[in-house]
Specification:
By secondary structure, the protein is mainly alpha-helical. Helix content is about 55%, strand content about 5%.
Length: about 220
Amino acid sequence: MTTTTARRSPMAALRRIRIPVFWSAWALLFVLMSLWSVATPLMASPDEPAHAIRAAAVVRGEFVGNPSTRVPGSTDVTVPKYVGDAHKLPACYAFRSDVTAACEPWPSHDTTEIPSTTTSTLNSPVFYAIVGTPSLVLNGAPALYGMRIVTALLTSGLLAIAFAAVARFPRRRFALLGTALVVTPMVLFLGGTVNPNPVEAAGAAATLATMMLIFRTPSPAAHSG
């Protein structure tokens, strides 16, 4: 196998991912998502209380929970009180256009274990085991914000892989522009909250970009004599 052929192998294509683009994209996206994280009232994003409760339960070893007898389709878990009360935080302004989020009470620092219910029952526990880690060393609002920051870190990192991969395409300016257009305000918003959806979407984008980079690289067998 010649040196030229070796450089065209799929693994060589992955090794040539543009590292500066990766770090730049990761840093920029992480900052933007973190800004959304602190600007959005706690537990105000779609299903965030349920995801936060599941994360706190999974990281404490309760991977599934028991089928709830109170809320069909949900599971009963045991979590610290400040997490279990997460669904109560936006209640003062939810569905009330005349009330601002300023009415939202600040989460307590009560770490007493209480029973709670979460509708997040079918998603893989891997995401929650990672995101729930801040609740083991923090409590109250810092723990909830910590969960958001970890989500932002994961989401922005996966998107950065996609940017670094498409930066190796022949027409990388158009590829980078197309990838940038995918990062809509909704992606940044969800990426700064406790929600597995942005991580899943970013993971799909990273997988697609890296697979396209591999398939665009000629196979060594095609160049062997």
